[in-house]
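Sorry to interrupt, but I need a hand with the structure work. Could you write out one complete protein record for me, on any chain you like? Just paste the record in under my message, thanks.

. . .
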Amino acid sequence: MNTLDNSSGKSPYSNFTALSTTLQKDHDYTITLTTGFSYFTWPEYWNVWIDYNHDGVFSEPDELAFSKILSPPAAGTPQASVSGTFKLPPSALTGPTRMRITMKRNGDPTPCETIAFGEIEDYTVNIVNNFGGGGTDDRATSLSFEAVRERTWVKLDGVFHSREAVAGFLSKNRWTASVRNAESARQPTPLTP
């Protein structure tokens, strides 16, 4: 899903919260979940919960982001996958958020149970606001400046990519700064009165 890709071993519970990906509110995401079999196969019920309100509880059905049943493939099949999409709701709180993935043999898992035949894995998704616009995913992380009567400089910290001109304006003195392209973002841009 997005930039998160993890192959895990067989374990009743795994804490992978150190692994994360960034998701934008109000965007669709594709997820693929893979089951490994030794020889015999079973129906596997997959659920993915995301704690959208950061209360530490996976409320049903509000925080059930994805649910799918894997029909049992032929015996001897080593792996089988389910895929689908989900939309991150615009009401989700921003910041690091727990995502829980559960897989249970022959039954629909709840978010908090001990699963005899299956697994529970926790991850982190960093929820950010919808950037909107032309699909540019990288934004400046901070903008610092000093408004003085003489020429000064704008310092862009972080990563900034844009094919369009971007302008910023300071209050009453009408100082302006502009970045014309990603290349010029690497050099300080003078402010002009």
